Amino acid sequence: MTSKNFNELLLSEFPEIKDDFDKYVEWQDGIETGSFLVIEDVFMKYFYAKIEELDFQATNKICSFIERVYLLNDEYASNVIVVGILENLKSSDYSAKISEFLHPITLKEYKEIEL
Fold first, then answer.
1. DSSP 35-85
2. Among 33, 54, 81, 109, which residue's beta carbon has the most beta carbons within 10 A?
3. Tens-place pLDDT, residues 71-84
4. Mind listing the pLDDT tens digit for each residue in 56-76?
5. Is the full-model pTM beyond 0.70?
6. Where does the pLDDT of residue 34 fall: very low under 50, low under 70, confident under 90, or very high at 90 and above?
7. What is the phi-psi region of residue 34: left when phi exceeds 0, alpha when psi lies from -120 to 50, beta otherwise?
């Protein structure tokens, strides 16, 4: 998977972040902007907002996406999930809250992360 593929997958699943995505990438490489950057600077803000809002439906949808992408067994996509999302969550104020939403495989991966 490439950055472009990952970003397209992300936007197809979460069209509500498209405006923020477009603003972020307009001065970079557009849809080919590195997914680690997009995850850090666009997607995680959205994810944290949903946790803050106690939007359990959206949080569960995000965690389902994380699990599904991780299970693609694509090296690039898995790295984006682990480094870009799970490690970010582990070092955040939401570390304790998120465990109840993560799905079995990514929860196991999450628990093994040592920062």
1. HHHHIIIIIHHHHHHHHHTT-HHHHHHHHHHHHHHHTT--HHHHHIIIIII
2. 81
3. 999 999 999 999 99
4. 999 999 999 999 999 999 999
5. yes
6. very high
7. beta
Count of C-beta atoms within a 10 Å radius of residue 55: 13
Name which of 75, 88, 99, 72 is nearest 37 in CA terms: 88
> What are 3-15's pLDDT values in tens digits?
999 999 999 999 9
Distances, alpha carbon 80 to alpha carbons 6, 53, 58, 67, 75, in Å: 9, 25, 20, 12, 9
CA 97 to chain centre: 16
CB of 20 closer than 8 Å to CB of 45: yes
- What region, left, alpha or beta, does residue 33 occupy, with left being phi > 0 and alpha being psi -120 to 50 degrees? beta
Give the number of other Cβ atoms within 10 Å of residue 113's Cβ. Answer: 14
Q: Are 110 and 89 in contact (CB under 8 A)?
A: yes
Q: What is the pLDDT of residue 115?
A: 75
Q: From CA 17, how far away is CA 11, in angstroms rounded?
A: 7
